[in-house]
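A reminder from the course coordinator: this example appears on the midterm review sheet, so study it carefully.

Given structure:
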């Protein structure tokens, strides 16, 4: 049996940061990172942006150079899937029949891309952009000239992929089941702005549209059929409809959780000596009014990793980080701070037609979140208002001649 004082399952942002934070805070015990990916820890957001566009080679999206992990005596066990956890024995079973013993376990496995469940969903030519291997396959498929692409999903991943593929010369149709893009994470002003931008770049956006099936030829996609019978001819399908938290072994071992795995303010699960961080960790978030949420962001993964590392070393600091996110589409830089989940009003600061504006979200007259498009000053200043739970008159927020602070 392989053993380590701390075993980290997951080699994404959360897992990598947990290992780094432990060493930075003086942990001298053994650390082993276990990941399904064959590659050493790398950044995931560029997969649907700069890496897909060929603007960044793989070496530039590595979280640290490969030598970093060896120099800090952090073991990497790659291409390895954990199948079972035995909390009593404090051990993991992995797919090849091996076992790994742990003193403390940090679960940072993230999630698996949600797949289409319609007929034809197993055909060749369908990609999810969740890992390097899948993105590499898409890059190969794009060789030989522009392709006809259907992007399923109007969230950030879908919109980012649509932007890159359009700039690569592809004919892109984006299919979204709801009445607007970004409906789960943003207000109408931002949704309508991005719809207009994508259409101006040639993307055919279909709203309130459901994929009924995918038609194929020689085991490869040739068209997406929508409910109602319309067929959209295509060579490639990119699916960006969210993730399924990768927590099966935790839940099977008795950990509490419904949407992911539940953790307390120190990122501890209900299992002894087991922490969970990142996309798969459901927690009561102070910026969501204490509601239990999962946050799929680099920020959340990094900050939870630091909280878990500190707790392991006996310095319990509750998770209280302000959520933030970003997205690059065309020449637009979207920056978000806070959570707008239950806002009751919005303020549109600036004019969308200027391609530099902000949408500020209020709850009970307090600033709870902001979406900024090419408006860095608003983003920096409003973060402080969100952290302070500040009450600001809407007229003040509207006045672009005055700073937010």
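Designed residues:
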């Amino acid at each position: 049996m392989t053993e380590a004082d701390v075993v980290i399952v997951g080699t994404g942002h959360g897992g990598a940061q947990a290992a780094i934070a432990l060493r930075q805070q003086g942990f001298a015990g053994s650390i082993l990172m276990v990941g399904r990916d064959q590659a050493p820890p790398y950044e995931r957001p560029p997969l649907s942006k700069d890496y897909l566009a060929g603007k960044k080679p793989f070496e530039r999206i590595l979280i640290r150079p490969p030598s970093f992990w060896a120099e800090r005596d952090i073991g990497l066990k790659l291409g390895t899937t954990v199948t079972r956890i035995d909390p009593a024995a404090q051990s993991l079973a992995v797919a090849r029949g091996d076992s790994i013993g742990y003193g403390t376990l940090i679960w940072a496995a993230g999630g698996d891309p949600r797949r289409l469940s319609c007929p034809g969903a197993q055909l060749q030519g369908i990609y999810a952009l969740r890992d390097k291997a899948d993105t590499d396959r898409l890059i190969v498929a794009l060789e030989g000239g522009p392709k006809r692409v259907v992007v399923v999903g109007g969230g950030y991943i879908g919109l980012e992929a649509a932007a890159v593929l359009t700039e690569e010369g592809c004919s892109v149709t984006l299919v979204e089941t709801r009445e607007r893009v970004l409906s789960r994470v943003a207000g109408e002003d931002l949704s309508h702005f991005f719809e207009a931008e994508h259409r101006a770049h040639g993307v055919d956006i279909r709203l309130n549209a459901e994929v009924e099936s995918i038609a194929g030829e020689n085991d490869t996609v040739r068209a997406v059929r929508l409910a109602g019978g319309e067929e959209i001819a295509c060579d490639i399908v990119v699916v960006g409809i969210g993730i399924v938290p990768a927590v099966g072994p935790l839940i099977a071992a008795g950990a509490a959780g419904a949407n992911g795995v539940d953790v307390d303010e120190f990122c501890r699960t209900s299992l002894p000596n087991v922490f969970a961080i990142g996309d798969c960790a459901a927690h009561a978030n102070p910026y969501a009014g204490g509601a239990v949420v999962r946050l799929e962001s680099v920020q959340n993964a990094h900050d939870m990793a630091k909280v878990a590392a500190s707790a392991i070393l006996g310095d319990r600091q509750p998770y209280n980080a302000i959520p933030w996110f970003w997205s690059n589409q065309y020449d637009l830089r979207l920056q978000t701070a806070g959570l707008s989940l239950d806002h009751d009003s919005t303020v549109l600061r600036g004019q969308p037609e200027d391609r530099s504006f902000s949408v500020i979200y209020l709850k009970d007259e307090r600033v709870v979140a902001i979406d900024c498009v090419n408006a860095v000053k608003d983003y920096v200043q409003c973060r402080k208002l969100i952290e302070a739970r500040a009450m600001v008159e809407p007229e003040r927020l509207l006045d672009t001649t005055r700073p937010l602070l």
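The longest strand covers residues 99-107. The mean pLDDT is 96.
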